[in-house]
Amino acid sequence: LDAVLRSRVKGQEQAISAVASAIRLSRAGLHAGNRPIASFLFLGQTGTGKTELAKALSQELTGTEKNLITINMSEYQDKH
Fold it and tell me: In what residue span(s) does the ATPase AAA-type core domain sit (predicted)?
C-alpha cells in the first residue's frame, strides 16, 4: 500500500505512512469490529496532494475513486 500511494503522491511521506499504518492495523484485525477502519482528515494548503492521496487510497481500497466522500471547505476562505 505504501509503494502504491507513494507512486501517486509526492512529498507526503508522513501522511502516507500514517494512512498505510492505520489500514495495515485494520487488515490485521487489530481494530474494533463495530468501528470503521479509520477516519482521515487531510488538511493543508492548496496543491499539497490532499485530494490525490484520498483518491489513491479510495482506488486501492475499493477499486474506484468514486467511493470517496469529500468535503471542500475552500469557499470559506473567501472574504465576504
Answer: 35-80
